[in-house]
Design brief:
Layout: H1 2-19, H2 24-41
Length: 44
């Protein structure tokens, strides 16, 4: 499910960047924060 979440999130972010390029910085920051938080809670 983790891989599906990343794929869906990446797809949504890509579409939003195409629609509003100025959102790129914010979306990348949010994406990295989410991946970081998920990484902390899913220690292998």
């Amino acid at each position: 499910m983790y891989i599906q979440f990343n794929a869906i999130l990446a797809l949504v972010i890509g579409i939003l960047i195409l629609l509003r390029p100025r959102l790129l910085n914010y979306l990348v920051a949010v994406y990295l924060i989410i991946i970081g938080i998920l990484g902390l809670f899913h220690r292998y």
